[in-house]
Amino acid sequence: MPQSHDVLDAVAVRTWCSLALEALGRERSAIDAINVYPVADGDTGTNLYLTVESAAAAVEAVFAAHETGSTLPAPADVVRAMAHGALIGARGNSGTILAQLLRGMAGVLAEAGDAPHLRTALAEAAAAARKAVAHPVEGTVLTVATAAAGAAAAAPAGAGLTDVLDAAYGGALAALAATPGQLAALGRAGVVDAGGQGLVAVLGALLEAAGGRPAERTAPPGPVSLPQTGDCGDADPDGGPAFEVIYLLEATDEAVTVLRSRLDALGDSLVVVGGDGLWNVHVHVDDAGAAVEAGVEAGRPYRIRITHFAADRIRAHREPVQRAVVLVVPGDGLSGLCADAGATTVLARPGEPPASGELVDAIRRAHAREVVLLPNDAQLRHTAAAAAEQARTEGIRVAVVPTRAAVQGIAALAVHEPGRGFDEDVVAMTAAAGATRYAELAVAERQSWTMAGICQAGDILGLIDGDVAVIGEDVPATARTVLDRMLSAGGELVTLVLGEDVPDSLADALSAYVREGYLAVDTVVYRGGHQTAPLLIGVE
After folding, report:
1. Facing residues of 95 across strands?
2. What sign does the dihedral 196-201-205-211 (CA atoms) show?
3. Of 37, 200, 315, 453, which has the fewest CB atoms closer than 10 Å, so is most exposed?
4. What separation, in Å, do the N-terminal and C-terminal C-alpha atoms of the chain show?
């Protein structure tokens, strides 16, 4: 049991995040199974897990920055990092509301983490979450949060931190148990509110982190029957919107006020959380483009995620296939290409490698008994291993092929045969990836030493198998030199993946160069879309 605390110091907040992530990891599937409101899309547990994972990662980053010093980070820095991490990583309706709850708490706990401030923090969190939701509904996570704050406020005067937390946790449990009687959709399914169940897990983790009694670990009740999913033409049997739209938004308070009104008129389940110029926007709409355009008019939207409810539900309830491939790709062009080949993809955004929770989420979305995971990045080796381990605890057989680049993943996917034995398929895919040398072109950001000599800002760098091998002045010439280096050891197939702003004429010129200089070597070209590197090269 964690050491008892009179205040929530930096270590206690760090422990809270860790225990909350662990608790949601245990309960994720069970919470997904009871997700019937506002949309029965079976992802509330996953969304809450990913939100807290982002919060925990932000907290760990603060501690990592102090590793070389002898002092711990300030508690205020830790709670603010937790809230910011949750905000930028919030997923779904429930995750967005949880992010606002954590933000509301952090605003008070940054001043002090004692019992009186905790009472205020819980009250501020519940109020902030209600304000963030366009049309609050009772019987949801909002009800549970309000009950927790009320129970904390009713704790005896002079009660210590753990006593206040114990009261809040008890109030949340009682409110959660009452949710089926407050919301008809829950009563019909015979379940408690999924978001509320997740909040109870988070509050239980906070109680345990402060040194109180370990939280009760009872699984939520399963639904009386599976929610009805509708058919391909009907995203919601009750006629609800077809799409979930989520994005981060840089905008002023005034612009967000206007945005709320616009989005409220477009759809429902509107939640806008954040402040100080950064917001997380969540809404269910029929016109996803209009929701994004409203964000563009308000400020700068990014990390835009659009989910079609009908397709998502069909995937969630279909019969599992025997085997699937999940791979990380650096651009949306490759994502479409691999999806057309039957793979499930995870998009790696520039400077934002996917977390293990995103990979586990993708493994689940593949809905297969056996999964081959292709990380396509050497730095994702441990992340992929952690995701595979988590998925295995859920009964999914997972093998990680240690691909280090997207072109290796493409080569592995090309030889994938779901009809043969699992081990045989993994061996063939591993062999294909291992036989593919990889390179990419990048633009030097500053003067630096490399294995090929000193580069200047603006130089074109040719990286072969991860190391700088060529320094050039322009993309075409550097690409030709890289191809010569790679093909000097032989090869049968060259794969070129072009970035979004690279003209087709470059691919034509490089294909002609290979054809004229290297007999019997074929070239295949793909559009990678928006990716970090202007050109990726593979040689098999």
Report:
1. none
2. positive
3. 453
4. 54
